[in-house]
Amino acid sequence: MNKILVIGAHGQIGQQIVTMLAQENIPVKAMVRKPEQQNLFDATTVETVLADLEGDFSPAFSDCSKVVFTAGSGASTGPDKTLLIDLWGAIKSIDLAKAHGIDHFVMISSSNSHNPDTGPVAIKPYLVAKFAADEYLKNSGQPYTILGPARLTNEPPTGKIRTDRPENPAERIVSRGDVATATLYCLANDHTKGQIIDLYQGDQSMLKNWQNLPPDSKKHPYCQGDKISHCLPATLHALSLPARMNEKTVKDQYSATTLV
Description:
Layout: E1 3-7, H1 12-23, E2 28-32, H2 35-38, E3 47-50, E4 64-69, H3 79-99, E5 104-108, H4 124-138, E6 144-149, E7 151-153, E8 160-162, E9 173-175, H5 176-188, E10 195-205, H6 206-211, H7 231-238, H8 247-255
Parallel strand pairs: 1-2, 1-4, 2-3, 4-5, 5-6, 6-10, 7-9
Antiparallel strand pairs: 8-10
């Protein structure tokens, strides 16, 4: 069976990705590091696999055709874990994806990873790790999409984003729910392969933002004419997701994911 492997499924974005996929009966495998983290998915039909990025986690890739890498060492750790998880763990994941013939590798990176010197000083080691991991992925030959979310919030998903960098730093934010939604979009749309897409909170529908992306940009999905004009509704239909979520649906989906 072709499953979607979510590496870092216990993380805040990972949980939302897994929840969205499971609610729509899309086969998903949640990779977690600790046995107690598996308990989060006990009440669901989600398959879990216990594996550590610092060890051998190659068995996690069996029966999978797509991979989402959303693992991170976390703010409470030091640069050593950033190096081992965010960089080396990502590189090992990319190599394993190639070895297992993975069709699509979606990397959750950062909008500041393009140039760590311009990002917040406090997280510069993280941004350097993300930059190096992204470069490795781009040159690996593995089909990929890199998503670069801005500063993350815990607001419910809106389906509204922008991909151009806002001039006002206060507007350089995006909800984890919208990052999860964008991830599902990429998993279902091959035209996002080989692209880097920055994600910011927007005031227009996700469809409109994707529809207006520059076709010749190396940092955004390829689109030509009206080719992309119906991509998002088609994606949502393919994923059995409603094209327009009402307030109750958004709240139910959001509350179903426990943020840590």
